[in-house]
């Protein structure tokens, strides 16, 4: 029996859901509303002491960390593997999943809280409830100092220390995706697989926040083509979009769209700095 604790907009939960559905696995889905603090419930913390989603239970075995969960599922249910069978493409896949865990996920957390989640949380909580929510955040999580970082992001948004660098880290990953997609049909090979499943929720997050201009209009054409093909996959909508509550999707779009001009200015400033540097040289 497979049980998945998840949240509708969680990028980590999304990639595990897609992996499981793509593999044809049946599972029981248990919703954890991380924007209301349900991840801090004592019973859930027994399963996942980091107070994050997803958490997978396979019979009596608990597995946490989304990348590990997907690798575990590939080993236990090898009939439809997500990872490439040949070493070269497997290594390319691992480079991508490693980049997600080490860089992109932190950038996504900072951008999402600055652009949208801070407003959603404040809308749904009074000052006392918000303080209690922030007090419960574990010291380690998306970042080693996540509790303090989360407080800063909710209070200051894009003015919080390091957020601009996180936006540029996001852009670095998208830029690299665009380059690599010139070499093969999908991210790690000419076959759709784990790398595509792992990165898609992070591009979808930007799309859900009204930030598709990040790659459109010729900025990252190979990434745009890949994203269009991702959305055409038969299991994409049922794995990613259908699980996000309509009000949450509406809020992400509303607040994200309002925040896009700030993100756009950061990206424009980088391009301006690069142009100036090239002119000077």
Describe this entry's structure for a reader.
The model has no long low-confidence stretch (mean pLDDT 93). This protein folds into two domains: 2-80, Glutaredoxin (3-Layer(aba) Sandwich), CATH 3.40.30.10; 87-280, Glutathione S-transferase Yfyf (Class Pi), Chain A, domain 2 (Up-down Bundle). The protein is globular. The protein has eleven helices and four strands. Helix 1 (11-22) links the parallel strand 1 (2-6) and strand 2 (28-31). With 281 residues, the protein is α+β, with helices and mostly antiparallel strands. It has a four-stranded mixed beta sheet with strand order 2-1-3-4, covered by helices on one side. Helix 1 (11-22) packs across helix 8. The protein has helices at 11-22, 42-47, 66-76, 87-124, 127-135, 146-156, 163-180, 194-208, 221-232, 236-241, 246-280; strands at residues 2-6, 28-31, 55-58, 61-64.
Question: What's the structural blueprint in terms of helices and strands?
Answer:
Layout: E1 2-6, H1 11-22, E2 28-31, H2 42-47, E3 55-58, E4 61-64, H3 66-76, H4 87-124, H5 127-135, H6 146-156, H7 163-180, H8 194-208, H9 221-232, H10 236-241, H11 246-280
């Amino acid at each position: 029996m497979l049980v998945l604790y998840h949240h509708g907009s969680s990028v980590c939960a999304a990639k595990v859901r897609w992996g499981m559905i793509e593999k044809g696995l049946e599972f029981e889905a248990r919703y954890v509303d991380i924007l209301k603090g349900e991840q801090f419930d004592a019973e859930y913390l027994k399963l996942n002491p980091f107070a994050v989603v997803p958490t997978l239970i396979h019979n009596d075995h608990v597995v946490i960390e989304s990348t590990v969960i997907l690798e575990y599922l590939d080993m236990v249910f090898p009939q439809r593997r997500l990872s490439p069978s040949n070493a070269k493409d497997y290594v390319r896949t691992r480079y991508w999943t490693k980049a997600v865990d080490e860089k992109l996920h932190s950038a996504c957390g900072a951008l999402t809280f600055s652009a949208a989640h801070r407003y959603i949380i404040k809308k749904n909580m009074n000052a006392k409830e918000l303080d209690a929510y922030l007090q419960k955040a574990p010291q380690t999580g998306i970042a080693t100092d996540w509790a303090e970082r989360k407080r800063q992001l909710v209070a200051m948004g894009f003015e919080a220390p390091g957020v601009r660098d996180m936006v540029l880290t996001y852009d670095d990953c998208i830029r690299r995706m665009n380059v690599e997609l010139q070499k093969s049909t999908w991210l790690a090979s000419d076959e759709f697989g784990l790398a595509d499943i792992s990165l898609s929720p992070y591009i979808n997050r930007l799309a859900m926040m009204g930030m598709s201009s990040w790659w459109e209009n010729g900025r990252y054409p190979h990434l745009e083509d890949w994203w269009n093909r991702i959305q055409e996959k038969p299991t994409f909508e049922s794995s990613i979009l259908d699980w996000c509550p309509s009000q949450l999707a509406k809020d992400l779009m509303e607040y994200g769209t309002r925040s896009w001009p700030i993100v756009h200015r950061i990206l424009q400033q980088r391009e301006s700095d690069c142009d100036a540097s090239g002119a000077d040289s």
